[in-house]
Amino acid sequence: MDNVADTALAGSGSGPAIYFDGLSSRRRAVAVAFKEQLEISGEGLSPVSSPVSWAYSDIRRVDGGPGILRVACLSAPSLARLEIRDAAVVAELTSRCARLGENRLDGRGIAKIVGWSLAATISIVVVVLFAIPLAADRLTPLVPEAFEARLGDAAEVQVKTLFGERVCNGAAGQAAFSKLIDTLRKSTDLDIPVQPSVLATPIPNAFALPGGRVYLFNGLLAKAENPDEIAGVLAHELGHLKHRDSLRELIYNGGTSFLIGLLFGDVTGSSAVIFASRSLVTSSYSRDAEQNADTFAIELMQRLGRSPKAMGELLFRITGKEGNRSLSILASHPFTEDRLKRMSDADRPASGSPLLTDAEWSALKSICGPNKS
Ligand SMILES: [Zn+2]
Question: How far is it, in rounded angstroms, from Cα 190 to Cα 213?
């Protein structure tokens, strides 16, 4: 404690302080006096020469580090501040201001606000990461099959728009295709009817839609060297149907956009960040679905006494070593090499009869007309 303050306190009950009038950023050395009210006086205060008076009951602590008390006054400009470093003056002021600690907007208050917005951000992230996938998982089994079938109808319209009416239906090929699907389906506990189609597009792919629709692209048939390769891919798609993955994805993606729309509106920036994290989440979410569909396919092929390795070889033939991942919609699937390894590990000598005869296989290969390979 310095001498001046000591003397001043002993004499008139006052001390030195720093004052900000809340109107300018100017820092003023002032004297404070403990009168009926707290009187702040010093050079350059306005109104000139009359002290600023703060009622003790209006004075609130704002913040302050160790050894410093910073206060504001409810009846003063909201940014007006008084800083006191002198311990004796701090003690005196503290004893006079009974409501010093009320409603303070101090560091702890600010920390609270920051904490809450942090908590809000974290809870959004948690909802997007965990709650929506969980909700999708819980909701998917509750969606009635009739509704799922209608969703499938709507999706089929999209498919027809994308690929035109290019459904291949060469009679002999169609018979072979139905036989293959039926054989696969009979070895599963899939309880919905399967509606398979071959589409005349050179893209090597296959996919499943809600309501039991399975689409095989002619491009995949062209690359396939034996029925087991196609059977494995179809089994994978049946796995997606069994787990209702496309429906789950619909709920999941719809749910995510709904929540983001609700929380952020269309605010640029935040939605861009969320979009980025969302596609990240979506891709890791569907990777699980892909792995489960592969497991389903491996088990199904093994039940039929056919090797799951064939499917892995077909995928590997299409995507190559690293995979042309940007072109193929297999991009969301696990790395082809990992899949091939899994399927190769499950390799067994064939114990079941061939899924198609040679004649049926060549009929299926040319279901869309003569194939090059
Ligand atoms: Zn898949």
Answer: 13
